[in-house]
Known about the structure:
By secondary structure, the chain is an alpha/beta fold. It has helices spanning 13-42, 48-74, 76-80, 144-151, 227-231, 234-247, 265-274, 289-295, 309-312, 326-332, 361-366, 368-372, 389-397, and strands spanning 103-109, 118-124, 132-142, 169-177, 189-192, 210-214, 218-220, 254-257, 280-285, 300-303, 316-321, 333-341, 380-384, 404-408. The protein is built from 13 helices and 14 strands. The strands form three sheets. Strands 3, 4, 5, 6, 7, 13 and 14 form a seven-stranded mixed sheet that branches. A five-stranded parallel sheet has the order 10-9-8-11-12. Strands 1-2 form a two-stranded antiparallel sheet. InterPro entries: ADH-like_N (IPR013154), AOR-like (IPR044626), ER (IPR020843), GroES-like_sf (IPR011032), NAD(P)-bd_dom_sf (IPR036291), Quin_OxRdtase/zeta-crystal_CS (IPR002364).
Amino acid sequence: MSVRPWLPSPLPLPSLLLPLVTLLVASAALTRAISISHHSHGHRGPSAAAVLSSSTQSTRALERRAAFLSALRQLPALVTKDRPGTTVLEIPEPPVLPHEKEYMDAWVQSGFGGPDVIERREFLMPSPEPHQVLVKVKAAALNPVDIGRRTGFFKGFMNESFPFIPGYDFSGTVEGVGKDVSRWRTGMEVYGYPHEIGVRPQRYGTLGEYLVIDQSFIAAKPKSISHEEAASLPTAIMTSLQAFEMLHIKPGDAVLFTGGAGGVGTQAVQLLKHYCGAGYVATTGSGFKTQLLEELGASVVVDFLKQNFTDVLKDLDSAIDATGEWWECLQCVKEGGHVVTIRGGPGRPANVPFFTVQARGSDLEKVHDLYEKGIVRPVVDSVFPFDSLPLAFSRLETGRVTGKVIVRGPSL
Ligand SMILES: NC(=O)c1ccc[n+]([C@@H]2O[C@H](COP(=O)([O-])OP(=O)(O)OC[C@H]3O[C@@H](n4cnc5c(N)ncnc54)[C@H](OP(=O)(O)O)[C@@H]3O)[C@@H](O)[C@H]2O)c1
Ligand SMILES: *[C@@H]1O[C@H](CO)[C@@H](O)[C@H](O)[C@H]1NC(C)=O
Ligand SMILES: *[C@@H]1O[C@H](CO)[C@@H](O)[C@H](O)[C@H]1NC(C)=O
């Protein structure tokens, strides 16, 4: 049997009708898609609200358009030759891949002050440098440092240049890689911390649709946890492991972490036990949080509303201060014991070093299996949709969170 060259296989005509109907419907959607995307590119600036909804739609429209065009290419005969005279469709400009978009949806900070210095608007798409990976953000987490950056509390030692996208933690999918990146490929699920060090933040933080990040600052997301859970981890894990290293914690050690119920503490307490093999893990918390901290593996939880922990804890090997109580920590360690503070504060002696966390994907890899197997678990305080960032900030600003405050990516 001879088959006409432009038909891939001899399909019966009825089976071609359904795709045709689909194409016609898609065609109507396409027309809308194009007008929406023009609209969103023409209105940057003051009318942020209008831009927002259309920009989300234009992403979906672009995806629809790409799907539509690929369907169209599989049926060339249907449109052009099999039914002469029916010029139903016109092929428009080629599809725009997500990472070729010019602008994306983001929360953007352009000054110091209250919640309104961070506005949702379109921001230039980042493109990866040779050593960088382009990631689509599925979830991001807030940290106390985001509050300090917003109010200007840290302006003395952070070299900010406005505007920038805030946010330190994310989980998402790889959408593209720079030419020197071989380890990561499009579609991989990764999580990480994009700023080389916390006090020298890059312009593209985690509260946007996409970010670019050095290939060594990310790790494969444990498959058994969600993006919301994974986003809760990078700062907490890296800060914990880097503090453990500074203190030279050994298996069997007795260690204190002050403020165990916070974003860092809920991970540090578990990691002290299951990663370092500490023999005794002490922490501080109040109310219902004391029970949670026991469940997370603390040997003792001092309720700071009822007792001064300096009265209870003695002769410890090391202490990590996350509450500004480094002086009290010094009272609890044995002679030759070590204290480090992640909170800082004036008047510290030389034997209480302060450090700022450094981005290290390798830290995340070291604990991958603990999370994958559920031996250590993420603790999420609350999850907010992307458009509720101001509410998420208010929640963190109470100072009473248990674990991490999460913000979903704009496309979810
Ligand atoms: N140096 C670095 O690189 C680095 C990295 C990460 C974090 N940090 C700093 O470390 C600190 C902790 O961060 P985080 O993300 O864990 O904060 P967080 O999530 O905001 O911590 C809130 C928790 O801390 C508890 N808390 C507050 N004061 C306490 C106290 N005196 N005793 C016991 N618990 C107390 C609160 O419990 P209650 O509701 O019971 O008060 C709440 O559960 C912050 O100052 C942050 O800036 C520094
Ligand atoms: C601060 O940032 C600007 C612009 O990015 C740069 O030119 C300047 O050297 C930086 N200053 C410090 C102290 O890092
Ligand atoms: C904790 O210590 C302070 C200062 O030394 C003291 O005033 C307070 O009564 C103590 N609280 C408890 C519950 O022991």
